[in-house]
Sequence to fold (308 residues):
Amino acid sequence: MPLSNKGWDETASCSTDLRRQSRCRPALTGTRAQARGDPRMASDESDGKAGKSADDVRDEFEEKMDRLRRQYERDLHSFRYEIEEREYRLKAYEDKFNKIKQPPLLYAYVVRKEGPDLDGNQVVVARATELLKVSTGLMDKSQLGVGQYVWVHPQTYAIVEGSAVRNEGVIAKVADMMDGKLVISIEGDMEKRLINTDKTVYKKLKPGFQISVLPPTMEVLEVLPNLEVKSLLLGEKPNVKYGQIGGLMEAIERIKDVVVLPYQEAKLFAQIALEAPRGILLYGPPGCGKTLLVKAIATENDMTFFNV
Fold:
């Protein structure tokens, strides 16, 4: 009975499917064995490691750990340095911020250190025309001087820091003196002022003397040399020899006996109780050599010549 085309097609299709399944089975079998952890598959992979001993593996492990440890120490040192640097920068910014945050300090100078109204650690300072009673703070009161500029905290009114700058005051002239007080006049000031002063300073002064006073309290800082007297005394070291003066040899010899000899032989004069003259008077018309003689005496005996 002949087969129909339909039957032949089914038989061919079935044989084709069987061959396809037989080709796919080894691949599936290998995959499943690998998934189950078949020792035969694992042995193939571990053939490359079979040549290393346990000591080699241990040495390799310790070497890697040593490299990691050194790297860790380098990184740790670098991190510490970076942290310290950032902390230093942060501290600088904090200091700057604190200075900005603080109120501005007052710049004043000391005008009085003692008085019945002052405690042991208080002084009076002046800021422009304003007087402030402040505490010396951490500074030693004995190290502060009258006229010295200081920095004062505006809230606590305590001296924060002293300055090397001083207020030298203004020059005043003593116009009169009465009952331990001074009447002074300051150049440019139309009015005279009556001020108190220390007894020791009062004894040194006379009307016409000049003093330096510290405004606004007018504390006397210093007694200045009397300019009227100072302007009359002009000391100099002349350079005139006896030989440069002509025609006055007789006057020169007499001056040597009266002035130079008692000066050079002071002990001899004392032994024989001979009193030297207190001075001599040279007289004559202008241009006769009086000043030259005196300059020559000063030059020959290393003295100072004063033109009064």
